[in-house]
Amino acid sequence: MNDIRLSKSTYCNGVQCPKMLWLMKNKPEEAVNASNESVLENGVMVGKAAQQYFGECEIIDYSADKSVMTEATKKAMESGADNIAEASFTYDNLYCAVDILHRN
To answer: For the whole model, what pTM was predicted?
Structure first.
């Protein structure tokens, strides 16, 4: 079975150019890496701005093992955190990560 997981960036690349998405998924060695430092820096800036907007946040540390992040998110929710930065979830073999999860 092919890996069909899409990140927000990968999805946006596919909307911009379906051929680029196909290459990234089927022949990654031939795909042009469209990401650059300024894109990554902007992502970090947006995340920090969101944290400042919502105030005190429980921050979920990045892990390549997504189950570590989803478990940390679950623990933060159970502890009553009002704001969780980089919260992660899985459902029905789907993965989702959000900049801020705000208890409402």
So the answer is: 0.64
Whether the per-residue pLDDT at 8 is higher than 90: the answer is no
∠ CA(10), CA(82), CA(94), 5° rounding? 30
- What CA–CA distance (Å, rounded) separates 83 from 56? 7
Going through the chain in order, the beta strands assigned E by DSSP cover 58-59, 83-91, 94-102
- Length of the chain in terms of residues written: 104
pLDDT of residue 36: 56
The overall average pLDDT reported for the chain is: 83
Cα distance between residue 22 and residue 37, in whole Å? 23
Alpha-carbon distance values, 75 to 25, 38, 100 (Å): 33, 33, 15
